[in-house]
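Appendix B. One record, verbatim.
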Amino acid sequence: MRRNDLANKNEEDGMMGDKTYNPYEHAQAQFDRVAEIIGLEGATRELLRQPMREYHFLIPVKMDNGSTQVFRGFRVQHNDARGPAKGGIRFHPHETADTVRALAMWMTWKCAVVDIPLGGGKGGIVCDPRNLSDNEQERLCRGWVRQVARNVGPNLDVPAPDVMTTSRHMLWMLDEYEAIHGGRFPGFITGKPVGMGGSLGRTEATGYGVVYTLREALKEKGINIAATTASIQGFGNVAQYAARLYSELGGKAIAVSCWDHVDRKPYTFRKKDGINVDELCGITDMYGGIDKSKAQDLRYEVLEGGAWLEQAADILMPAALENQITIANVEKISPQVRILAEGANGPTAPDADEVIKKRGIFVIPDFLANAGGVTCSYFEQVQSNSNYFWEKDEVLEKLDSKMTAAFKAVSELARQSSLYMRDAAYVISINRVAQAARMRGWV
């Protein structure tokens, strides 16, 4: 399996809903709400609700046919008061500056909620790697690094993989960075291959982190995980490992959805007596797309893409892209659903969030639930910088400890202050970043 979230296209019908959706406005609305709750002063509010730095640039790439194609690239550093910026690089044919801004902002809160000494950043290239050769992808990666080589680095901004990027892309980027700066800087980038500065456990980290927080939520509610069912959106890296660990702990995943690149539409694959993760992975491509005909041969029902949301399950795990649960479909959530564990970034639109809150569904918010990836990236950075690498069990034990402590802190604040879980997570994160900015004398 590759380090990819669900590689679907956010412009297609049935996946992103409202075409006017702006993720940056979504992220700012969430921030503004909590800034009011905690009475954040004006200057600090202005500093934290927008990126500190942005880099927009063009990347000319020599294509295999001899032509030159120009791609648009981005790197956004939202805030680095608590440490170097940290965040993935995503390849997507409809990437936008506002998407990257939102993701960088969410990364700031994500690093703060799990209390690791990093800030928030994000990068992207407007491209579809499925239509590029390996050589063209390598030139594109190296071109991206050349444009930002003076503005990123182990002590400034540490990239990582994201949607449709892999450890291979990260190694090309590292090699280019080291060639430019004339030395070895393995801590410049994370998500590298194991044996080349990568960390054991990194591949599993985001999906496992979702389930670690889910496990703690079920414990608090006195629910036996073996008595629960789940429906999952996505079947990329995050969804695959979340489904795997959830099943190993005794839960039963009954449905997953994915994007079909040939049909250019999503499908949901359902097996009411429980999906077999290994079985499905065997018929899944590197971008998380499941072969429909082979799935039908294995007795999976093939349903419409949005059917994952409507399943009579106890747990929903959106693990694809932003804006998947909207005011247009939120009422389709089954009355049986008790927990929403957000494996994706920003999967729930603010107006849909209000409906979920009123229904009493327990939410494990995105930047808490999916913080396992950046936490393990931090572990990789520490190992790379010290040139000493841990065993896999040690990595996952440290990850479990970090995710469990973060969940308990958010849950405790939510109970004590009668806050919605998402608001409680934001209160902790924003306060930590605001305090760092004050201590530095920035505000």
